[in-house]
Design brief:
Blueprint (H helix, E strand, L loop, with lengths): L1 H13 L6 H25 L4 H29 L1 H4 L4 H9 L3 H8 L9 H20 L2 H24 L3 H6 L5 H15 L6 H20 L4 H11 L1 H12 L10 H8 L1 H17 L8 H35 L4
Amino acid sequence: MRAIALLSVFYSHFWGENSDLGHVGVRFFFVLSGFLITNILLATKERDDRATGIIVFFIRRAARIWPPYFLLLAFCGFAAGALQLRMMHQSLPWHALFLSNFWYATHGPDPWALRHLWTLAVEEQFYLIWPFVVLALPARFFLKLCGVLVLGVVPYRLIALSMGKVELGLALPFDSVDALAAGAALSFLSTKGWSMPRWLVSLSIPVGVAGLVTLAAFETGDFIEWVVIETALLLPLTAIVALASKGQCLKILANRAISGLGRISYGAYLYHLPIWAVFISLGIDVSRGPRTMLVVGASSVLTAFVSWVVVERPVMAWSKRLTNRVPA
């Protein structure tokens, strides 16, 4: 599923300039992330020593996210002149502190090759708060909180829309809370043995098709796209995660190539815009289109594979060996 979300982002960035498919893919990843992270935290909640469990959680998250992330920042900082990345050095502290979303919300679109880091900033901000919420909140209030977070995003978007601050609203973490909370609620329900009813799964199909067709074929304005469709698409995105968590998803997801791409999808997502900037700086024609998606996309995947083998997998293995010594 990560691979499919990654390919949707590649399509929007490298091929379909005005496509919203990439943003839908990011929203899907947030639902998936909310589900997986909450699963980990609910298991941590069952430990006798919750404080140790939280430390293990943060160590493993840092080992997964930080090494390739900071290597990329070092590269972009060093090569900013050659890559013609304006505002790179001014924005570097913000990226290093995982505040990229706030940087772009307040300073504009530069440096363009790191604009996608706003999603990682949202993830890290989620990691800082959500573990303590899950551990402290009584189980009887969990679904209520998730419901409030999902529904609360709608008035947030309406306020941002009325103020003419759509771009600002999109970048701030509040806009992604509903997707993260939907995944978290699904995780909580799954631990109780709940399965999504067939009628709800059936309803998600026309909702998803109608939403995607509308985004692809019509210019509907910010209210329909951001408030109505973005909220409605939570249902099919959550349904896909629900089905996959029960092993009831498309057989294509079990394909080794797709699952392998999913395994290295973080690196491919992380590197894809900077690699595009490298091609541009070399004077290679990589204007948007199928050729650019193929060439730059394949280069991003290859770089991600090398990163996985050389950096990410060894660091993750080390972090697991370290944390496995911690008594439960």
